[in-house]
């Protein structure tokens, strides 16, 4: 039965992903309203795409005959949206274990890389990209240290061809110092003991990684006069983390846990940190801002406390921004990553504002992950990840009409459009 199921899933993926070839070459999108994000809005503008790059953004351009023209009169051009926290490409069917590769055995897995497990033929990828989401962070989720996420474009035939940043960040699930909910019957003493034990495990790993890095660095500076130390793949994987080459993404939600995490980050000034989730962020927004920590947030969740106003999840990004925190949208999903624009839309309506919400799903995300030289805005020289919309993409009634990823004009076909076409006219006969 497992074999049959796998054949069915693989066949379904192929049908959904391999629909028709993307177009590649030179494109001139004319007469559009261009939302550059970085340099305001350009009316009746032109965007020229040559291969993977944007080569012109402005109101006037010399368009040669080798450009394929796309008239976008009355349309809008936006940078491709980025979801900064998903399991896209790692999970297919949640209830079928053999289709999931987002979790690893063990508690400490800094050497695990999501990049190696990405499935380019995932049925959820075309569904996501036709809604304007052109690149995502895909992350592992298990244990205290889950492993390293990858930042990928949502077009390609292999992880290598999709990767923007193979190792985007190390994911740490912060140990909680409080009850998990009404069902948690642990005593306060037990909770404290377990928290301190998990924190010690984390600190021990960090200390060992620092020692290993010093030892290996000393050898690398003068390998001729020293015998090579024994290698350790987990410690080797931590080297780019403790030196700040890639950030540590700390998943943490409750107020007390956020404050504990902030204090812990202060003990490691050479490393870079990002907070993710932060559902209670609005309660400690000033403290997060003072620590200089960016936050990856969503809006479509239920408040943890019965007495919290239902609007708090929608208001959280705005409250954080008001305090001075850089925020980016991260849905934490798979098949519903396509709804990332609406997370930003809720945030815009409930205090963040449309301009900052647009940054939260484009340029802020790119800056947080250090890829703003390639992505996040419509500028000359940047990668051509963008889309054409007939209106505000935060509003579900508007439509994404065309998507470009790395300069490829993507077929606007997905499992959803195929099913729509299949069942729209299904041969029903009239009674007349």
Automatic annotation (TrEMBL):
Do the record's keywords include Hydrolase? Answer: yes
Q: What are the residue boundaries of the Amidohydrolase-related domain, all occurrences included?
A: 315-398
Q: Which Gene3D superfamilies match?
A: Metal-dependent hydrolases, Urease, subunit C, domain 1
Pfam families in UniProt: Amidohydro_1 (PF01979)
Q: Which InterPro entries match?
A: Amidohydro-rel, Metal-dep_hydrolase_composite, Metal_Hydrolase, Metallo-dep_Hydrolase
A GO molecular function annotation here is: hydrolase activity, acting on carbon-nitrogen (but not peptide) bonds
Alphabetical UniProt keywords: Hydrolase
* PANTHER family attached to this UniProt entry: ALPHA-D-RIBOSE 1-METHYLPHOSPHONATE 5-TRIPHOSPHATE DIPHOSPHATASE
What name goes with this protein?
Answer: Amidohydrolase family protein
Species of provenance = Fodinibius halophilus
